[in-house]
Every structure is written in C-alpha cells, then in structure tokens.
C-alpha cells in the first residue's frame, strides 16, 4: 500500500471518538487521566526491557503523544503515527511546549511498514489494537517495521467476564474513568489470540505482563501474574 491509497484497516467511528476529545489529551484530570496514570509504568517497563536510549522507536497509534514524549525523555528517537488529525495536532502543539524532537505522521502502521521496513529498534503499539478492524494486520506491520533482534511491545484488554465488568461497566459506567462507549467488548483480545498473531508474523512472545487498578488507592501497578483485564506483551523478532 502506498501513502496515497485510502487505508483499509481504519475504523472511522473509533477515530472520531478520540478526535472529539483531542483538546483534553494533555489534561491529567480529563478523560485521559487513566493514560496519564499508566504512562510512567509503561514507559519505564519498555525502557527497562529494551533500553531505548539512542534507539529508533516507532509508536503506532500515538494519539496526543504521551508515550512518545516519555520515551523521548529517556533518550529514544521517536516516530509517532496516528490516523487522527486532531490528536496529532495536539501532539505537535505540546511538542513545541516540551521542546522534544519527535516525528509525528498521519498514517497507518501498514503504510509506515511499506515506507520504512526493518528501520526501528523498538516498536510500541499500546491501547490501539482493540480499536482497529484487523489487529492481526497491525501486528504483521509491526513485525515488518522492527529490525531483526528488535523488540515490539503491545498492550490491550483481555476478553472475558472480568474484563467486561472492570473495563466497561466499572471504568465507563460506575467510576466514570472513561467516556461511555470508549471500548467494545467484542474487540477485546485474549492473550492466546495475540500470541497466535505474533507467531504468525514471525515473532516470538517473550513476556506477558498484567496491569491492575485498585479503586480504593486509585493506583495502577504492573502485575506479572494477573492478565485478566489489562495486559502488555513483549515480543521479539529473531535475528
């Protein structure tokens, strides 16, 4: 696919959800508070596992640039892509404020993989797979983007009764942590499904890490043995 073609692996209704909220992306008390809360956890874990300083990193579905800026502050050279025009505009505005050098582009993972195959030491794709029609195709694109020996990091939400209760009923309707309709249960992804797509793309699963939320302390933490709701997956591309 070249960049002039209309991307097929895009859900316009999902893009519209985040376009409508884009101006509040960097407000830590807005609808994006959960992202602000988990961003240091995710960035530290990625840096710990991949050592991002001095490495080329692509962030797929970067939104307003929270992870891009966090990894750039840790020494990475970031390319952030998203299909939402408004979140990217917010990311570029905040970049002027932060003074960080980040290459933001409006394109899909598939388009970037065609333009720059095997160009990145690390690829991240967090909280994005549950918002596209064909997550397996995004995983394939990430495999094409990363250099042999490189790391890819995914995060998403498991699909089971507990995740429905916590991620939709709890987060969207009871605690009002997220706008209603942010997530659709049938788009949640089981780790077994993710692992199957990763292996089909020629990569290997290295680690599975859960992330839990305590509504009493209002704190998130990484939990290696609890992937029932939110989880991250670290994968590698063989040399």
Write a structural description.
It comes from Marinospirillum celere. It catalyses: a 3-demethylubiquinol + S-adenosyl-L-methionine = a ubiquinol + S-adenosyl-L-homocysteine + H(+); a 3-(all-trans-polyprenyl)benzene-1,2-diol + S-adenosyl-L-methionine = a 2-methoxy-6-(all-trans-polyprenyl)phenol + S-adenosyl-L-homocysteine + H(+). Residues 59-154 form the Methyltransferase type domain. It holds the Pfam family Methyltransf_11. This protein is α/β, with parallel strands linked by helices and 239 residues long. The protein has a single domain (12-237), classed as Rossmann fold (3-Layer(aba) Sandwich), CATH 3.40.50.150. Helix content is 38%, strand content 24%. It is built from eight helices and eight strands. Strands 3-2-1-4-5-8-6-7 form an eight-stranded mixed β-sheet. A hairpin with a 4-residue loop joins strand 6 and strand 7. The longest helix is centred in the first third of the chain and has 18 residues, at 33-50. It is globular and about 45 Å long.
The average pLDDT value, as a whole number, equals: 91
| Distance from first to last alpha carbon | 26 Å
Q: Which CATH architecture would you pick? A: 3-Layer(aba) Sandwich
Q: What's the shape?
A: globular
**Major sheet details:** 8 strands, mixed
CATH superfamily grouping = Vaccinia Virus protein VP39
For the secondary structure, the number of strands is 8
Rounded Rg? 16 Å
Tally of discrete structural domains: 1
Summing up helix and strand content along with how strands pair, one would put the structural category as alpha/beta
SSE sequence, one letter per element: HHEHEHEHEHEHHEEE
**Binned strand content:** 15-25%
Helix tally equals 8
| Helical content class | 25-40%
> pLDDT below 50 for ≥5 consecutive residues: which ranges?
1-6
CATH topology label: Rossmann fold
Q: What is the CATH C level class, in words? A: Alpha Beta
Order of the strands making up the biggest sheet: 3-2-1-4-5-8-6-7
